[in-house]
Amino acid sequence: MCPKDNHLQIPDLSSPFRVGGLSFRNRVVLAPMSGVTDLPFRQLAWRFGAGLVVTEMVASRELVGNASESWARLKNSGIDPHMVQLAGREAHWMAEAAKIAAGNGADVIDINMGCPAKKVTGGYSGSALMRDPDHALLLIEATVNAVDVPVTLKMRLGWDENSINAPEIAKRAEEAGVKMITIHGRTRMQFYNGSADWDAIRTVRDVISVPLVANGDVATSADAEEILRRSGADAVMIGRSSQGRPWHAGVLSGAARHPDIAGIQGIVAEHYGMMLEFYGVDIGLRHARKHIAWYLDRFARHLSPPAKAAIMTSTDPKAVLAQTVAAIAAGSGREEEKDAA
């Protein structure tokens, strides 16, 4: 058990921490975000100094069934340690997928019990598992027993405000062999509405001794310090605040500085090229649109809706990149400076 007074000293985000025998280089973790943290995005975040990056959610049964999308999400290149997040609702498929992931270079397996998306919870996966802790523990135990690499768990506070059971599940997960637990400070029914409850995360800290990662609404250095203070966590995880700035985890950890306008333009160009190469031009063009939109929203807020729409609907990769870079240059990054940590 880990008493509260052991966590009065806020950990230094730039310092390494250990999970199940592995050392992570700092305490700012990039969240697994489906449709966002693909390999190109993770490679950029890692290069800029994120302490740990996690793959997009990989559906366990689909991976076992050899689905091409699952294999694409599993892929790693130059990131060490390699952390793969698995989702599923059946212990057998979770165990088999964990074996495949570990056999293909995964150093850590993370279990998804936090995704609130209806298409995931409708299949009784993600945060829906929190509605049945006994069943959730079967999946956890099967995954832990299937592999020799550390298994971690990401979840929410509970399904809704009347079923806050994260402490109970976390304690049982640790007893089953889970080596790290991440808590998003909202219930599933909140989705991303309202504010994350950083104080509620401490109720998990009070019942586990393995490392705890706090997640939810961390956008600035001040946010990171406050969530650590209030939750007693060992590290922070950032998600939406990294959209449109893959360097942000590195900035929060002290490993990188916020790039100047020329640096931003160069990163956008590199990111766009990486996506076209990874997916192929046609698919890459479509996948890159959300990232282009985030870059424009952050660094070209002056852009008129019609001008933005023209960029977003263009099917000419060269034109998309040229217009995006030009828009960022015209914006000069001034709007973003007040948000930089």
From TrEMBL:
Looking at the keywords, is Manganese present? no
EC annotation from Swiss-Prot or TrEMBL = 1.3.1.-
Top-level taxon:
Bacteria
Query: Its catalytic activity?
Result: a 5,6-dihydrouridine in tRNA + NAD(+) = a uridine in tRNA + NADH + H(+); a 5,6-dihydrouridine in tRNA + NADP(+) = a uridine in tRNA + NADPH + H(+)
Record Pfam families: Dus (PF01207)
Which cofactors are required for activity?
FMN
Kindly give the SUPFAM superfamilies that the UniProt entry links to this protein: FMN-linked oxidoreductases
Q: Where is the DUS-like FMN-binding domain?
A: 30-302
InterPro entries linked: Aldolase_TIM, DUS-like_FMN-bd, DUS_fam, DusB-like, tRNA-dHydroUridine_Synthase_C, tRNA_hU_synthase_CS
UniProt keyword terms in alphabetical order: Flavoprotein, FMN, NADP, Oxidoreductase, RNA-binding, tRNA processing, tRNA-binding
* Record bears the keyword NADP: yes
Question: Which family, according to the similarity comment?
Answer: Belongs to the dus family.
Among PANTHER family, the record links this protein to:
TRNA-DIHYDROURIDINE(47) SYNTHASE [NAD(P)(+)]-LIKE (PTHR45846:SF1)
Task of the protein: Catalyzes the synthesis of 5,6-dihydrouridine (D), a modified base found in the D-loop of most tRNAs, via the reduction of the C5-C6 double bond in target uridines.
UniProt name for this protein: tRNA-dihydrouridine synthase
Its gene is: dusB
